[in-house]
Amino acid sequence: MVGQLLWRGMLAGLIAGLFAAGIAFVAGEGSVDRAIAFESAAARAAGEPEEPEIVSREVQRSVGLATAGALYGVGLGGFFALAFAFVNGRVGRLEPRAVAALVALAGFLVMGLAPWFKYPPNPPSVGQPDTIGLRTQLYFGLVVWSALTAIVASLVYGRAAARIGGWGAGLLAVALALVSYAVAAAVLPPINEVPENFPADLLWRFRVASLGAQAGFWAALGLAYGALVARLPGFDFASRRADAPARYAAF
User: What residues have CB less than 8 Å from 247, skipping those under 6 apart?
Assistant: First the structure.
């Protein structure tokens, strides 16, 4: 059964990755082209030699973008399936589509929205090459912190729901998550390497397009996986019930 869930997650991730790549192509590639033009103009003004183009822009924005989206989606789709298997049966007797939507929402909040507010993505020509390592570490550190916060908040919800009810437990879990994220955002150092003369509208359009691609990815992943798993024969989606078959108890 784990294998059945896993390959469906990878397939749903492939669909979601290609969908997100389409959003990025339509909404973001124009901003990337403008940012590259800005970088080239700045280099020419400074008398710097033009760097050779190893991979053409046509390949980057077509095959390269689709390949990156597919690989990203397949990888995250597998983890999504494992998260679905863990959550299933622990959030009440929800239908598979509802469980998948809930996991997708959590994924977007943890991996998309939370790091976007603190360390939003930047187009080409923004950022110093010497700080790539530091920026990567800080970004993934915040993602890990957000993931741990989500896990702790869900455990708090499960413990508190029996005592103060689902509504009160939900508010407590959300408050805990917000406080934890606020502490992390305040402790982690800010990074602002945007050139003074970089167009503000271009920066904003690129960041919104990036967030839109993330939102589209997680929405497509939740919808596609819910539809695929709903047709999985013999799977008991309320597997925590006392009368559930023993072979599903692992979930």
Answer: 1
Which spans in the chain are helix H?
2-45, 57-59, 65-87, 96-107, 114-118, 132-187, 200-230
Q: Hey, is 165 helix, strand or coil? A: helix
**Alpha carbon distance 59, 202 (integer Å):** 23
Give dist(CA 102, CA 80) in Å, integer: 11
pTM of the model: 0.84
pLDDT in tens, 111-140: 999 999 999 888 877 877 788 888 889 999
Q: How many Å apart are CA 157 and CA 160, to the nearest integer?
A: 5
User: Which tokens belong to 67?
Assistant: 């390949």
Residue 242 to residue 116: CA distance in whole angstroms: 42
Structure tokens at 199: 């167009």
Residue 234 CA to residue 228 CA, distance in Å, equals 13
Rounded Cα distance between 9 and 103, Å, is: 12
